[in-house]
Amino acid sequence: MSIKVTTALGLALASGGTLLAQSGPTVAESIRKAWTGQAGLRAGQAMVEARQAEAEGARDLRLPSLTLQAQGIRTNEPMQAFGIKLNQARITAADFDPRALNHPDPIGAYGGSAVLQQPLYAGGRISAARRAGEYLAQAEAASQERRRQEAAQAVVEAYFGVQVAEQALRWVEDSRTWIQGMEDFAGARVKQGLMLESELQRLKAFHAQIDAQKAEVTKQARAARSGLGLLTGTGPVEGPLGTPLTPDFEGGMRPSKEPVDLAAGPAAGPRGDLVAADLQARAAAEGAKAAKGSVLPEVGLELGAGTLHHSWSDKGNWTWAGVGVKWKVFSAPDQAKARAARAQERAAREMRDFKQQQADHEVRVARESVLAAQARYTAAKESLAAAEESKRLREARHREGLAPLIDVLDAEAAIQGARTLLLQSLYDLRVSRAGLDLATGTPIEGVKP
Predict the structure, then answer these.
(1) Residues near 226 by Cβ (< 8 Å), separated by ≥ 6?
(2) Cβ(88)–Cβ(316) under 8 Å?
């Protein structure tokens, strides 16, 4: 979930302060909580387990199958009646009487059989299906890892979105304190006849605007906490957050000292989506081999034993063993399936190549985004310092009666813009670095499973 700094953050006014977090869950802890607590990722893990079970089933195709059967029957159908007696080993000469053959008395029997079947050769279908199942299971696991990293990036956006909104809220509170002081000063001047009533009314209107801004920023802060709770699976997050937004702290990011190298390679680690795409292409190749094997001969071994009872002691037993060959010489549906499998193999290869090209593009864009955010952050710090100094001078001149109130309000508006740029650039810097980590396959915020 992307939590962006919106227009209301431009309404954060008044004096500055450090953007330091308090004691509370860190961004790393929030990422790990999302990995374990988010229902979407748990669903993805269930898909991994399903693929692994399917792969085990494909591996077991090479094992023999054992079929047990039990039956009970009573019939006077001529063919079955004669066959039952024969299987019970109780045929006599009287059973060949044409009248007995044509119109037998009803006969009952019960018994069972056991059949063991072992495939010996299946045109390569069994081994191809086994390898395809293994590749698909590995691909799903790689996709799950990619989903985890995407969730981590979303947590970073939401986590620092909370801090941006709440820092804006603190600045609004500072603004309310400042404007109240200005109102008190102007009110005293009005009573002394040294200032027009219209100036005081202008300050009151400005005060009302700040109150409206506070309500808007409060809504944003609550929405950001709710979004973070959705990602971590905990519900709306309460209390302070432990990782500071500002990059200039001990052990944290130092954008001015750690510039991004645009000449670096396209990726710093294996991306789960690229690994998955490669494994899916391999699985598709094995699927094409399995489809081709469907038009080749099959060889199988079958062993069996059966018994059929007329009574517990009156019964017949038999066994059999056989090796058979089955060859579907021509089958239009199987030929069509083989062509479809070859097309799917080509599609998987092309998709793998496209994903690699897409990943290279994402890395280039992510590096440029970090550089742009670094530049905006540096500019924002300089702009804020200049705006605060300008406001200090204009406010001092106004108190001495040397500058109109509009100059002070203009200086305050300049601080608004500078602080909005500072918040936006800080947020963009953290989020763009997370985006670069995601693009290059680097653990986001250094958090590993």
Answers:
(1) 236
(2) yes
Give the DSSP letter string of 131-183.
HHHHHHHHHHHHHHHHHHHHHHHHHHHHHHHHHHHHHHHHHHHHHHHHHHHHH
Amino acid 18: pLDDT: 43
Q: Per the domain annotation, does 244 fall within a domain? A: yes
pTM of the model: 0.75
Report the chain's terminal Cα–Cα distance, integer Å.
21
Q: Over the stretch 231-258, which tens digit does the pLDDT of each residue have? A: 998 888 888 888 888 754 333 333 333 4
Strand order in the sheet with 107-121: 65-75, 107-121, 298-309, 315-326
The answer to whether position 361 is within a domain reads: yes
Q: Which residue has the tokens 């092309």?
A: 350
- For 247, the domain range is 7-65+126-293+342-446
Does pLDDT of 21 surpass 60?
Answer: no
- Residue 140: half-sphere exposure toward Cβ, Cα within 13 Å: 19
Q: How far from 265 is each of 195, 325, 382, CA to CA, in Å? A: 65, 55, 33
CATH number at residue 207: 1.20.1600.10
The mean per-residue pLDDT over the stretch 51-58 comes to 91
Q: Domain for residue 246, yes or no? A: yes
